[in-house]
Amino acid sequence: MSTSEATNLPVALRTARRQFDRWRTRHRPRARLPEELWRKAAGLARKHGLNKTARALGLKYYSLKKRMEAKAARLSKSEKGPCEFVELLPSPMTAPSLECTIEWQDGSGTTVRMHVKGARMADLVSFASAFGSRRV
Predict the structure, then answer these.
(1) SS (H, E, C) 2-47
(2) Positive or negative, the Cα torsion across 108, 129, 81, 70?
(3) How does residue 40 score in pLDDT terms, banded at 50, 70 and 90?
(4) Among the four residues 1, 44, 65, 96, which has the most C-beta atoms within 10 Å?
(5) What angle, rounded to 10 degrees, do the helices at 11-26 and 35-48 form?
(6) In this structure, which long-range contacts are made by residues 40-48, counting pairs with CB atoms below 8 Å and at least 24 apart in sequence?
(7) Could you give the CA distance from residue 60 to residue 128 in angstroms, rounded to a whole number?
(8) Residue bearing the bigger pLDDT, 68 or 85
(9) What's the pTM value of the predicted model, to 2 decimals?
Protein backbone atom coordinates (compact mmCIF):
# COMPACT_ATOMS: atom_id res chain seq x y z
CA MET A 1 0.00 0.00 0.00
CA SER A 2 1.42 3.38 -0.98
CA THR A 3 2.03 6.17 1.50
CA SER A 4 -0.80 8.30 0.09
CA GLU A 5 -3.24 5.39 0.39
CA ALA A 6 -2.09 4.77 3.97
CA THR A 7 -2.87 8.36 4.98
CA ASN A 8 -6.44 7.97 3.64
CA LEU A 9 -7.11 5.05 5.99
CA PRO A 10 -9.39 5.41 9.01
CA VAL A 11 -7.52 5.98 12.28
CA ALA A 12 -8.29 2.47 13.56
CA LEU A 13 -6.74 0.85 10.47
CA ARG A 14 -3.66 3.13 10.60
CA THR A 15 -3.14 2.25 14.27
CA ALA A 16 -3.53 -1.45 13.57
CA ARG A 17 -1.16 -1.19 10.59
CA ARG A 18 1.52 0.28 12.88
CA GLN A 19 0.96 -2.57 15.38
CA PHE A 20 1.25 -5.19 12.62
CA ASP A 21 4.38 -3.52 11.19
CA ARG A 22 5.95 -3.33 14.67
CA TRP A 23 5.21 -7.04 15.27
CA ARG A 24 6.64 -7.98 11.87
CA THR A 25 9.91 -6.11 12.49
CA ARG A 26 10.42 -7.98 15.77
CA HIS A 27 9.74 -11.48 14.42
CA ARG A 28 11.23 -13.61 11.69
CA PRO A 29 9.66 -13.48 8.22
CA ARG A 30 6.76 -15.87 7.67
CA ALA A 31 6.18 -16.27 11.43
CA ARG A 32 2.56 -16.89 12.38
CA LEU A 33 0.65 -13.89 13.62
CA PRO A 34 -0.62 -14.17 17.18
CA GLU A 35 -4.34 -14.74 17.75
CA GLU A 36 -4.66 -11.29 19.29
CA LEU A 37 -3.68 -9.64 15.98
CA TRP A 38 -5.98 -11.92 13.98
CA ARG A 39 -8.89 -11.04 16.29
CA LYS A 40 -8.13 -7.35 15.88
CA ALA A 41 -7.97 -7.73 12.08
CA ALA A 42 -11.28 -9.64 11.97
CA GLY A 43 -12.99 -6.95 14.03
CA LEU A 44 -11.63 -4.20 11.79
CA ALA A 45 -12.66 -6.10 8.66
CA ARG A 46 -16.22 -6.31 9.92
CA LYS A 47 -16.25 -2.56 10.41
CA HIS A 48 -14.17 -1.32 7.44
CA GLY A 49 -14.51 -4.12 4.91
CA LEU A 50 -12.54 -7.25 4.20
CA ASN A 51 -10.51 -6.09 1.18
CA LYS A 52 -9.61 -2.69 2.65
CA THR A 53 -8.49 -4.25 5.94
CA ALA A 54 -6.49 -7.04 4.29
CA ARG A 55 -4.65 -4.53 2.08
CA ALA A 56 -4.01 -2.09 4.92
CA LEU A 57 -2.63 -4.75 7.26
CA GLY A 58 -0.76 -6.76 4.65
CA LEU A 59 -2.82 -9.90 5.15
CA LYS A 60 -4.03 -12.49 2.68
CA TYR A 61 -7.66 -11.80 1.79
CA TYR A 62 -8.84 -15.41 2.12
CA SER A 63 -6.96 -16.01 5.37
CA LEU A 64 -8.66 -13.00 6.90
CA LYS A 65 -12.02 -14.04 5.46
CA LYS A 66 -11.64 -17.50 7.01
CA ARG A 67 -10.85 -15.94 10.42
CA MET A 68 -13.87 -13.65 10.14
CA GLU A 69 -16.20 -16.54 9.31
CA ALA A 70 -14.84 -18.62 12.21
CA LYS A 71 -15.35 -15.71 14.61
CA ALA A 72 -18.87 -15.09 13.29
CA ALA A 73 -19.72 -18.76 13.87
CA ARG A 74 -18.43 -18.59 17.46
CA LEU A 75 -20.33 -15.37 18.10
CA SER A 76 -23.57 -16.71 16.72
CA LYS A 77 -23.34 -19.67 19.08
CA SER A 78 -22.43 -17.63 22.15
CA GLU A 79 -24.54 -14.53 21.55
CA LYS A 80 -27.92 -16.14 21.38
CA GLY A 81 -30.13 -13.87 23.37
CA PRO A 82 -32.13 -14.94 26.37
CA CYS A 83 -35.46 -16.56 25.79
CA GLU A 84 -38.04 -13.84 26.17
CA PHE A 85 -41.16 -15.93 25.81
CA VAL A 86 -42.05 -19.45 26.86
CA GLU A 87 -45.47 -20.73 25.97
CA LEU A 88 -46.85 -23.44 28.21
CA LEU A 89 -50.14 -24.69 26.89
CA PRO A 90 -52.52 -25.79 29.63
CA SER A 91 -54.63 -28.24 27.63
CA PRO A 92 -52.09 -31.04 27.06
CA MET A 93 -50.57 -30.52 30.52
CA THR A 94 -53.77 -31.09 32.47
CA ALA A 95 -53.57 -34.85 32.34
CA PRO A 96 -53.07 -36.39 35.82
CA SER A 97 -50.12 -38.47 34.60
CA LEU A 98 -48.13 -35.49 33.21
CA GLU A 99 -44.47 -36.38 32.73
CA CYS A 100 -41.87 -34.37 30.83
CA THR A 101 -38.24 -33.24 30.83
CA ILE A 102 -37.53 -29.53 30.67
CA GLU A 103 -34.12 -28.01 29.96
CA TRP A 104 -33.14 -24.33 30.25
CA GLN A 105 -29.82 -22.79 29.29
CA ASP A 106 -28.80 -19.19 29.84
CA GLY A 107 -26.18 -17.15 27.98
CA SER A 108 -23.40 -18.00 30.43
CA GLY A 109 -23.77 -21.72 29.73
CA THR A 110 -25.66 -22.61 32.90
CA THR A 111 -28.03 -25.46 32.17
CA VAL A 112 -30.88 -26.72 34.28
CA ARG A 113 -32.54 -29.99 33.36
CA MET A 114 -35.65 -31.08 35.18
CA HIS A 115 -37.67 -34.27 34.93
CA VAL A 116 -41.23 -33.48 36.00
CA LYS A 117 -43.90 -35.98 36.87
CA GLY A 118 -47.33 -34.93 38.07
CA ALA A 119 -46.57 -31.17 38.43
CA ARG A 120 -49.16 -28.50 37.97
CA MET A 121 -48.91 -25.83 35.28
CA ALA A 122 -48.56 -23.09 37.92
CA ASP A 123 -45.50 -24.84 39.38
CA LEU A 124 -43.79 -24.99 35.97
CA VAL A 125 -44.53 -21.32 35.27
CA SER A 126 -43.22 -20.32 38.70
CA PHE A 127 -39.99 -22.25 38.19
CA ALA A 128 -39.51 -20.83 34.69
CA SER A 129 -39.85 -17.25 35.92
CA ALA A 130 -37.54 -17.90 38.87
CA PHE A 131 -34.86 -19.33 36.57
CA GLY A 132 -35.25 -16.40 34.18
CA SER A 133 -34.69 -13.91 36.98
CA ARG A 134 -31.80 -15.98 38.44
CA ARG A 135 -33.41 -16.58 41.81
CA VAL A 136 -33.00 -20.35 41.49
Answers:
(1) CHHHHHCCCHHHHHHHHHHHHHHHHCCCCCCCCHHHHHHHHHHHHH
(2) positive
(3) very high
(4) 44
(5) 160
(6) 40/16, 41/16, 41/67, 42/67, 42/68, 42/71, 44/12, 44/13, 44/16, 47/12, 48/10, 48/12, 48/13
(7) 49
(8) 68
(9) 0.51
